[in-house]
Amino acid sequence: MKLFFATANQNKVKELAALFSAYDIDIVSVANYPDFISPPETGVTFQENAQIKAECACQFTGLPSLADDSGLVVAALKGAPGVYSARYAGENATDEENNEKLLAEMKDIPEADRKAYFCSVLCLALPKGETIFSEGRVYGRILRKRQGENGFGYDPLFYVDEMDKAMAELTLAEKNMVSHRGLAFRAMKDQLLSLFLATDNG
User: Fold this and answer.
1) Neighbour-count burial of 199, counting CB atoms closer than 10 A to its CB (0-12 exposed, 13-18 middle, 19+ buried)
2) Across the strands, what pairs with 161?
3) What is the pTM of this model?
4) Three-class SS of residue 51?
5) Residues 35, 68, 69, 95: which is the catalytic one?
6) Are 13 and 66 contacting, i.e. CB atoms less than 8 angstroms apart?
7) pLDDT tens column, 8-34
8) CA-to-CA dists, residue 64 to 6, 19, 123, 138, 189, angstroms
9) Residues 90-110: pLDDT tens digits?
10) How far is CA 20 from CA 115, 123, 188, in A?
11) Which class for 42: exposed (0-12), middle (13-18), buried (19 or more C-beta within 10 A)?
12) Is 69 annotated in the active site?
């Protein structure tokens, strides 16, 4: 059984593949379908953007298709950067530019009000038209300066309450256990397995 993961990020593909390594599920991605063009993310929520991408991918490939949308949500910034996390400092902004803007926006925010969370929403679109969703969140707070050398995006500025470390101080194995995307993947796992097992038995 094939599953199309609508991403060009091979690290995401490897993470998903590891979850299903014991099962007969062939996970393919944009690397296998180079003509696939991801649609504009015009949604105002993570769920809307994930669904837009998953349904477009399903129509293009004819396969069950998975897509994710994720970002950082900061309470003191009224939910920003949210769905604009990757382009917070402008279109094609670098991680460094996004982090600099976040630090500037949070400059005068007191410690008690620096709470935030990372959110990832997955959407599975099926050829018959159904959609299935899962969500993962990891809670923490925004630091006043970068900590750690690992990860990417806002990881150096996000302190993970559960681990008592910045996200960028976690090893890859630690991050996969607590990350928003890892939680969303694991929440989707049982639904995917039920679907594929039913297909195989049908």
Assistant:
1) exposed
2) none
3) 0.86
4) helix
5) 69
6) no
7) 888 778 878 877 777 788 899 999 999
8) 10, 17, 10, 27, 14
9) 988 999 999 999 999 999 999
10) 34, 17, 11
11) exposed
12) yes
